[in-house]
Specification:
Oligomer: single chain
Strand content: under 5%
Helix content: 55-70%
Distance between the termini: 55 Å
Number of strands: 0
Shape: flat
Order of helices and strands: HHHHHH
Length: about 140
């Protein structure tokens, strides 16, 4: 529920509550808030279980398209190939990644291609930075 709130925001909220409510009313406010959140959570879980009991097997029919949609959200090209073509075995990708050169080496050497010289880059290009122009390639 509070997955988007970090520790710094929690400290700010606590200090603001301490200033607004004062030290004597803060413990009662915290108890009331936790009791209310627990009650809302119990209502939500009770409503879900009641809906599941009343709908029976139709409830699973409603949940299946949502589960399929969530599965598609996490589907990347690599995950799709691994799941459907390789039956979940991703050792091919691990072997392929170990055979590739380190990307850091691509900026400091010509990667063993002596036929046409590539411009030697000391660092990756920054955002919106224009690449160097190779007059032989244009």
């Amino acid at each position: 529920m509070f997955s988007n709130i970090g520790w710094s925001e929690m400290v700010i909220l606590l200090v603001a509550a301490l200033v607004i409510l004062g030290p004597e009313r803060l413990p009662g406010a915290v108890r009331w808030t936790t009791r209310s959140l627990r009650q809302v959570r119990d209502y939500a879980s009770g409503a879900t279980s009641q809906l599941r009991q009343e709908l029976g097997p139709e409830f699973d029919d409603l949940r299946k398209p949502l589960a399929d949609l969530n599965e598609l959200r996490g589907m990347t090209p690599r995950a799709m190939v691994t799941k459907h073509l390789l039956n979940g075995d991703d050792s091919l990708f691990k072997d392929f990644n170990s055979a590739l050169p380190d990307p850091k080496d691509l900026y400091s050497t010509n990667s063993g291609m002596p036929d046409y010289p590539m411009p030697k880059l000391d660092k990756p290009l920054e955002r919106n930075e224009r690449p160097p122009i190779d007059s032989d390639a244009t």
